[in-house]
Amino acid sequence: MSTLPRACDLGLIGCHVCGLVCRDIRAPDAACPRCGSALHRRKSASYSKTWALLIAAFLVYLPANLLPITRTVSLGDVDDNTILTGVVELWVKGSPYLAVIVFTASIVVPVLKFFALGLLLISSRRRSQWAQRQRAKLFRLVEFIGYWSMLDVFVVALLTALVQFGFFSQVEPLPGVVFFGLTVVLTMFASMTFDPRLIWDGREFDD
Amino acid sequence: MTDENKPIAGDDLPEPVVQRPRINASLVWLVPVLAALVGLSLVIHAWTQAGPTISVSFQSAEGLDPGKTPVKYKNVTIGRVTNVRLGQDRTHVVAKIALEKSAQGFATADTRFWVVRPRIGLGGVSGIDTLLSGPFIGADVGESQEYKDDFTGLESPPPVTHGALGKTFDLQSDDLGSLDIGSPIYYRRIQVGRVSSYHLDEDGKGVTLQIFVEKPNDQFVTKSTRFWNASGIDVSLGADGLKVNTQSLATVLAGGVAFQDPAGPHDATAADENATYRLFNDRATAMAPPDGEPKYIRMRFSQSLRGLAVDAPVEFLGVPFGRVVSINLDFDEKTQTFPTIVGAVVYPQRLGRAHDKLVALAKARGDDEQMSQMMGRLIDQGLRAQARTGNLLTGQLYIAMDFLSNAPKAAYDPTTRPLEIPTTPGSFDKLQEQLAEIVDKIHKIPFDSIGKNLDQSLGELNKTLKQVNASVLPEVKTTLQGAQQTLGNANNMFAPDSQLQQNLGGSLQELQRAARSLRVLTDYLGDHPDALLRGRRADKPLQAQPAQVAPPSAPTQGSKP
Prior knowledge:
The complex is a heterodimer of chains A (207) and B (561). Chain A is mostly helical and 207 residues long. Chain A has helices at residues 46-66, 83-92, 96-125, 132-146, 151-162, 176-193, 197-201; strands at residues 12-14, 21-23, 30-31, 70-74, 77-81, 169-173. In chain A, the strands form two sheets. In chain A, strands 5-4-6 form a three-stranded antiparallel beta sheet. In chain A, strands 1-2 form a two-stranded antiparallel sheet. The longest helix of chain A has 30 residues, at 96-125. Chain B contains 13 helices and 27 strands. Classes of the chains: A mainly alpha (207), B alpha/beta (561). Chain A binds chain B through residues 1, 3, 5, 9-13, 20-23, 25, 27-34, 36, 38-39, 44-45, 48-49, 52-53, 55-57, 59-60, 62-63, 67, 75-80, 85, 182, 186, 193, and chain B through 1-2, 4-6, 8-9, 13-22, 25-26, 28-29, 31-32, 34-36, 38-39, 42, 67-68, 129, 132-134. Strand 3 of chain A pairs antiparallel with strand 1 of chain B.
């Protein structure tokens, strides 16, 4: 056969933490004899966990966008902004670059993650062999950009700390930012629980 | 393929250990459930907090910001503008307002909405805080329970909010003047209320203003209170001079109403809500005693009435009694003259007690109460109307009704309507006469002869001066020349080199010499008294010098006696 053997084909299982190769005894609660971390051929219940976290992330993403995230008080003018109105305001008030950055970090990236993870989950479940290499790259991208998705939360935290001039200018965080943070955290968890090896599991032939 | 790879697996590979069972994977589904619950709770919260949505139409959407502009009642936010759109007929804008659940009661029939913007008017500054925070919609709720969700917004804040403590009164006026909704009401120059609304009377013959006087100052509005229009500067150049009446500067600019009780005894019980008052034009008219029923009288003057204007006062023995309402020329065919017919409205009640007594007397006599009979008696006693000068500067005339002791008998018909009061030439004519007299007197002064005499005298003076010039002045000249000569001689005489001076000098020298000899003689005699008897001794040869000086005269003189 032209296919190269996989660890599970050889009855082997590798420890994720210390790299020790053990024999696959097919027990659900196997642990590495050297470092004691759990052993599993694939991340256990990767599909359902990822799905669950992804759905949860999506659920909190709704209030994150609907609720205002900042309250800007300047000279008595109280202004509550959601993510989108903030972007619009930045654009209108003459900072289109900043608006693009915030829009990318707060809207494009989370939505991209939902789609990417969903795509990966569905295609892997169907053992599709379509564009596996690209899907693997997509997964790496999702993992990578996860770190950078907290931009909005940082902006709000920084503004709140820096802009405290009493009556003249003041920025307060509003509940929306908590939900946004939760979204980011949950999508990161979702991408963590997804096992990228599942992308390749449907593969019949290796070239 | 599994089978093929099996042999590779060595038996020396370590066996995994079996640990405690780990958490069931399905528990991870709690996370989305939790998220769903949180989301649901938010939705439910928002749903329960949402009150009715109402629409309010305004003239302009200026300052109304969808999603931002709050609706406030007593400065508590009760809703927010969610949407602003143009009305269908494009004459107004419709603001959709999402009220909060707690503000459900504001969607009732008598709620009023208005936009609070900074308003800097003559009456004051309001809504200054909205300069910074942006405009908001103010709300004022009534007591109605009837649901309503379509409102017409007010263009300016209502001057009286619901539940404000105080009383509302109606004022009737001929016109609105410079008053407006919100114009202040003053009591002793303290603002105690506002004009809350006004409307034309149904017959169009006046304006009714509704005013609101705040508690506790509403108690000062009594049954006999008088209201007057305190707006504007009331400059009147009447028969009684220049009068300028103002309230306060703000009132002058913005208009206002003042009220006060009349002086003297009056009914001081607090007025009822919605009592109706008359709004007088100025304080003087407001404070004047009640006019009572006006009567129309007519007067016929045969002289020019230049300076008499409509509204000129009619005075009865100096008491303002009425005013002139019409001045018309008439033509008398018999005399071919143009008499002036002056119509006036008089208020007999202004005479106060006099009027009461006269009426009582008339009743006692059996005359009717009408003024005609009464007037007839008064006219018999010499009552005459007279156009008098009230103001010499401006020449304003007023009508004075006075008793003239030497008045000629006048025809009076008590049955004519309107009453015609006989007149007598006014003081203005008298003044003219007096002026004419003065002019006459001036005329009589013999300016001609005075001038002539003065001219003669001046001629004489001229002659005299000529004489002086011709004869006296040359004499004086020669005299002066003589005097000058004399002075020159005197001058020469006293000059140092004159003969007189030299003679005098010589004489004085001689005298000096004589004196010296005398001294020598006396000295010699002092030393040699015997010389008187024996004569002078011979001089010693050594003492020749002194002897040379004195002896020549002394011995001779001394030897002689």
